Amino acid sequence: MKGMGCDKQKVIRALTSCNNQQRQEIAKVYKVQYGSDLNSDLKKELSGDFENLVLALMTPPAQYDAQQLKKAFSGIGTKENILIEILTTRSNAQINELKHTYKQLFGKELEKELMSETSGDFQKVLVSLCDARSLYKAGTQKFGTDEGTFNSILASQNFNQLRLIFDEYKKTAGHTIEEAIQKSLAVILETLI
Q1: Which residue ranges form the domains of the chain, and what is each CATH number?
Q2: Between the CA of residue 139 and those of 106, 131, 159, 186, what are the distances in Å?
Q3: What is the distance between the alpha carbons of residues 107 and 8, in angstroms, rounded to a whole number?
Q4: Is the pTM of this model over 0.90?
Q5: What does each C-alpha distance from 49 to 26, 55, 136, 157 come to in angstroms?
Q6: Is the pLDDT score of 131 beyond 60?
Q7: pLDDT at 162 over 60
Q8: Is 33 exposed, middle or buried (0-12, 13-18, 19+ CB in 10 A)?
């Protein structure tokens, strides 16, 4: 950065020849070497769609997704296409990181935002995507079971919502919730014996 414009071709080459984790490392090295925040400097030097694109490239994925979801909830009407794109294409780990990041950035639970900003079957499916992945993470994906997560989801949803969650759980985990409970129970019983 020179203060009087920057070499956009070098910016493009530098940022598109590496992954997001490497871009985060570049930002850290830049901060140490120049004592300045790379994103702030890029903002000063760039404008328009190019600025937006470069700043998006410099944003960690979970943070970017959280920001996009917040934008989707803002203003008049919810931008459903953004919700669909993000929540249906992310892995279990990515959804869980997104939920954590969303809470950190905005102080709100993503599921509660979905409940307040959407309705009907659309709402049920989106919340189910988040809840089913939480159940999977709390259950058979790891050794031991997080009973608190299971209890929270099972006690707070109606039967129709639970049916959707269980259907999504089966798609996510490759087995039914009943099978997951039986596996967890078998482990507990084996431990007791």
Answers
A1: 8-57 (1.10.220.10), 61-192 (1.10.220.10)
A2: 27, 12, 20, 13
A3: 36
A4: no
A5: 22, 10, 39, 42
A6: yes
A7: yes
A8: exposed
